[in-house]
């Protein structure tokens, strides 16, 4: 107990050490999430090989990929702005990232509507498609919620050069969601 | 002087972000075009997806920071 209190006090006195611990913790979380996505992607290849539905809307998949990649640019800009104390830039870039995240989700809803018609979840391909895209969309949703919380809490200008870990953490998570999509998009839409 | 340095560092960071973004868009577009014309798609997709993930992880997620003494 005493050792724990001592450790907390030590961390408070050494913010850089605390930042390193935070970063390591987040990377471990991201690594564990990566295993989940890798398992789902592997299941798709194990069950179906490289077979895919001919009714997939590849163009829509490509467009929402571009939307997600663009959102990553704005997330990066939001983090950079916070790091350099540009409050206006931080708010603007965060809001744009949220908007693009929501646009991505609208695209997913359109895909789901088409998917339900041509390859419902009861089919093998539909099962892989809805599980992977649904699991990913849930991550996008949680990312949007986290970004919105960031925008709300940062409205008083609390994130700056000395304190921007919350921004860095949420933005890293957002980029991870993008990395996951970089593999999901070809896995579901392009490979055959 | 310090202000000018900060401005320059920020400008460099923003430029880097934009360059990485352009590279990602180009790779994604090549991936899509290749999928329409080529065979052996699994290999092609891996060859194009891995660099995209690498760019995001290294430049946007600052993986290298974990081993650096000072973060920014």
User: Could you state the order of secondary-structure elements of chain B as H and E?
Assistant: HH
| Biggest beta sheet summary of chain A | none
Rg of Cα set of chain B: 17 Å
Quote the distance from N terminus to C terminus of chain A: 57 Å
Order of helices and strands of chain A: HHHHHH
| Amount of helix of chain B | over 70%
Structural notes for this entry:
The complex is a heterodimer of chains A (about 190) and B (about 70). Chain A contains six helices and no strands. By secondary structure, chain A is mostly helical. Chain A is elongated. The mean pLDDT of chain A is about 90. Chain B is mostly helical and about 70 residues long. Helices cover about 80% and strands about 0% of the residues of chain B. Chain B contains two helices and no strands. In chain B, helix 1 (about 1-35) packs antiparallel against helix 2 (about 40-60). Chain B is elongated, with a radius of gyration of 17 Å. In chain B, about 25% of the residues are buried. The interface of A and B includes residues 16, 27, 176, 178 and 183 of A.
